[in-house]
Design goal:
single chain, about 300 residues, alpha+beta, Glutaredoxin, five-stranded mixed beta sheet, 13 strands, elongated
């Protein structure tokens, strides 16, 4: 069973545990009720930004004003009364972000949207307070808005980013999978991470990737574009043999060129030094030879006189 199905099955089993104890999700089989539940990756597609929601303060907000800007965005669709899976997803994300040397509201932002239209700002505010405390950063008041909205706007957003979910009338819960979506500063989908555990390295590289190099340092860019690549099957960044070989070849060429330049410079220095010495010796030899014959001639003449 591939990774997305494993995550989906595990997540749905957790969500339905309280209301469907007798239900079993087989290893390679999903119930008919779960038709359409899962993630359809729409990479590079624009997020539907002209949607109105209500934030945790009760204020009407347009999604465009929360996403488009200078920072990458982590967009999560959850609901605040979820029995377990939403908490696992958000807690896993927070655990990973605590180990990332980037600041919420400065280097990146998070937007969480409830898929339950019956939930309101009060519940959203309670959840936001708890997750911000768990993150342990002094984030601006506007950072990480928790949103609620109408059924139509929620469904439009979910379809736009490929987040499939269904409401189970028997349990009163929502069937969905564990996923977070990375969005570029101009509102396009950059990457999905479908899991409840998010390694800090993967989160950081995903931020750098989504920000198009605006976030992180030179080492992050070097690692992302020259050492690692995203593996959808593994659900993480993995070393890329081709990128590493290419980087190794580039470093080898640079070292060879640098070595040749150093040798040429040393050769020119030795050449100039040798010429000066030879000229000095030549001059000295000339003076000696000139003085040698003259000396004896005078001496001979003097003796004759």
């Amino acid at each position: 069973m591939n990774r997305p199905i494993r995550i989906l099955a595990a997540g749905l089993a957790i969500c339905w545990a309280s209301g469907s104890a007798a239900a079993q999700i087989l290893a390679d089989e999903l119930p008919e009720e779960l038709d359409g539940v899962g993630i359809v990756q729409r990479l590079d597609a624009p997020v539907p930004l002209d949607l109105m929601f209500v934030d945790h303060t009760g204020k009407d907000v347009v999604l465009r004003d929360l996403i488009v800007g200078e920072r990458p965005i982590v967009l999560t669709l959850n609901y605040y009364n979820c029995p377990m899976l939403c908490s696992l997803t958000l807690n896993g994300m927070v655990d990973g972000l605590r180990e990332v040397d980037l600041n919420l509201g400065v280097d990146y932002d998070i937007v969480t949207v409830s898929i339950n239209p019956k939930e309101g700002p009060e519940l959203a505010a309670q959840n936001r307070k708890g997750y911000l405390a768990a993150l342990g950063q002094d984030a601006p008041d506007t950072a990480w808005p928790f949103l609620t909205g109408t059924q139509d706007n929620i469904e439009t957003l979910a379809r736009g980013i490929g987040f499939g979910y269904r409401f189970d009338e028997r349990s009163g819960d929502y069937a969905h999978t564990a996923s977070i979506t990375f969005v570029t500063p101009d509102g396009r989908i950059s990457k999905y991470m479908n899991d409840v555990v998010f390694p800090p390295r993967d989160l950081r590289l995903a931020m750098v990737d989504a920000s198009q190099g605006r976030v992180g340092g030179l080492i992050d860019t070097l690692l992302l574009f020259n050492c690692f690549q995203w593996d959808p099957e593994a659900g993480s960044y993995v070393p890329s043999a081709w990128k590493i070989m290419r980087l190794g070849g580039l470093i080898t060429v640079v070292l060879i060129v640098a070595g040749v330049l150093i040798l040429l410079r040393m050769g020119r220095r030795d050449s100039h030094g040798g010429t000066g010495t030879d000229q000095t010796h030549a001059a000295g030899t000339t003076r000696t030879n000139t003085a040698g014959p003259t000396g004896p001639a005078l001496q001979t003449g003097g003796l004759q006189a």
